[in-house]
Task: structure prediction
Amino acid sequence: MKKFNAVLALLLLVPAFAAAGKDKDEAVVQPDVELIDVPTAGILDYYGFQLKTRAYTGGGVLGGLNFGVLERLNLGASMSVDRFIGSDSDVKMRRPEIQVKFRFYDGGYYIPAMAVGYDGQGYYYYPADKKYLEKGKGLYLVGSKEVGVPGLGLHGGFNVPDFDNNYLFGFLGLNYTLEDKVSFIVEYDSLFHTDDPSRLNAGARIYVTPYFQVDLAMREIGGSRKFDNGWPRKSERIVQMRYNTSF
Result:
């Protein structure tokens, strides 16, 4: 029943967002501001707006808003709701988290576009400790550049998710966009520290319209370890939807 409800909810949301698209003659595909979990140096245009939803394990839903408040500055907020989809009555809303990104360099022939940002949104919230078992990016620096062939983008950077221990992590992402119709994504996240294992994620981004995208992805491919609290760390299927527009 949970799976049926999840599919039904997605089918109802897709035409609602797609119908909000603008005239195709004006359509321009917006740059990707993130892949699956990995950020890029892409930002929303000034007065740009993005609405994002993610359906994840156990009927949870993550919702987020992102705004282009200045020419190079994006501000956003997100919040997750566990067990929102399905028949489980124990629905839990988690605290909102903020996102900030400033693109300080547009890139050159050799040097990638660069951005600095902060993202507090984590995954797998553990109520007993009031924290996410998979921390958000925290403070990060990211670079993005088209490499090799047109449509092939390489993204990488460093992040400090927790200011209590100041561990420096790394992340890498690769996406190949085919004729602004579909983008194939692979990313390697949470690098450098074995006590917080690295994650391999992969998926595809379908451009239903230039303004509406659907992601089908698998997180933590091959994951088999456990979190510190004993929860299983395993592969997770997710569905994401994004709607981009401007004021």
Residues 2-246 form a domain with the Porin fold (CATH 2.40.160.40).
